[in-house]
Design brief:
The structure is a single chain. The protein is mainly β and 81 residues long. It has one domain (5-78). Helices cover 0% and strands 37% of the residues. It has no helices and six strands. It has strands at residues 5-7, 27-29, 34-37, 42-49, 60-67, 75-78. The chain has a two-stranded antiparallel ribbon with strand order 1-2. It has a two-stranded antiparallel ribbon with strand order 3-6. A two-stranded antiparallel sheet has the order 4-5. The mean pLDDT is 83.
Length: 81
């Protein structure tokens, strides 16, 4: 499978409310026919953890990572017509 070439914005930053759903879209550039892998992505979520009032520590962040599974064989096939 060919690796994808993504175009446009690939980093999205912002705040979402608890239980809010957000859809993130990216674009893939295809220059020739072939089978392109859609794996290899990583989603990073950063959540601020506020310390107890009066604590001398500043706000810390908890980071969660989610990656596509190597077993996932998700792909798109581009054919010439």
């Amino acid at each position: 499978m060919l690796p994808p070439s993504y175009t446009g914005r690939l980093t999205f930053r912002g705040k979402i409310a608890p239980l809010q759903v957000v859809t993130v879209r990216s674009n893939m550039w295809v220059s020739k026919p072939g089978t392109y892998s859609l794996g290899g992505w990583t989603l990073e979520t950063e959540i601020p953890i506020e310390q107890a009032e009066g604590s001398k520590q500043s706000t810390r962040n908890r980071i969660y990572l989610q990656e596509s599974s190597p077993e996932d064989k998700i792909c798109v096939v581009i054919c010439e017509s």
